[in-house]
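#help-structures

NK: newbie question. if I give both the sequence and a SMILES, will the prediction place the ligand too? trying with zinc ion
OV: yes, paste both and it writes out the complex. here, I ran yours:
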Amino acid sequence: MGREGDCLVDFDDTDRAYCSCYDFHFRVLSGSVPSCYHLLAARLARAESKFETISFADEEFEGFLRALVSDIASNLRTKNRKISSSS
Ligand SMILES: [Zn+2]
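OV: that's the protein plus ligand as structure tokens.
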């Protein structure tokens, strides 16, 4: 979904929300910005009923989480390399 890979987005009707992207971890949690664009897009999609539900069988969930964590770790390594090389 994102330009740099998929993100896990979790939110409800309260202020609680989570996104696995770099911006959420480093800018939203520090209070620099109120939300990442994934959460904004997910809330907008839900409000306009423009989303698709994908259901996993229990035995498929482990593989999904492994792929997601691997993708997140890869994105963070890439971001850290970019930060290191720019300083
Ligand atoms: Zn995000």
